[in-house]
Design brief:
Helix content is 33%, strand content 31%. The chain is α+β, with helices and mostly antiparallel strands. The protein has one domain: Histidine kinase-like ATPase, C-terminal domain (Heat Shock Protein 90, 2-Layer Sandwich), CATH 3.30.565.
Length: 142
């Protein structure tokens, strides 16, 4: 496994303000890893923000406690990787791990299809009351 060249993390309540904080973490990541090509930055950041926004907009609390959003992003020599976690959320009906583009009449599912189009892999797991999406984008960095 290749070593981590740059990493940023965020965890707080899943609110619209959390998305601004994740944007800030991505900006900081690119400052720490200026060698990442602009196209990789743009597509990967779009996927990360879309996944985090899905947690904020759609995660349902498992208990009376609010859902928390966690984002861990890292740059490796061969890939960009993000783990987006919904702490304290019920398991979603649709995880997006094998999502295609929904039909034009569909009222949901477009965000997850967009994520799949922007990254190399999307996986979903559930552990201890936490929904976890892992996004990875292959990249050959200088």
């Amino acid at each position: 496994m290749t070593s981590v060249l740059a990493r940023r993390s965020f965890r707080d309540r899943a609110t619209p303000e959390a998305i601004d904080a994740v944007h800030g973490e991505l900006d900081g990541l690119w400052e720490d890893a200026p060698f990442v090509p602009e196209m990789d930055r743009m597509t990967f950041a779009t996927a990360v923000i879309e996944a985090a926004s899905n947690v904020v907009q759609h995660a349902v609390p498992e208990t009376a406690a609010p859902v928390e959003l966690g984002v861990d992003i890292c740059v490796r020599q061969t890939s960009l990787k993000a783990q987006i976690s919904a702490f304290g959320a019920v398991q979603p009906e649709f995880t997006g791990a094998d999502a295609g583009m929904p039909c034009e009449d569909a009222e949901s599912g477009r965000g997850l299809a967009l994520i799949r189009a922007l990254v190399s892999t999307v996986t979903f797991t559930r552990q201890d009351g936490t929904n976890i999406w892992v996004l990875s984008r292959d990249a050959t960095l200088p």
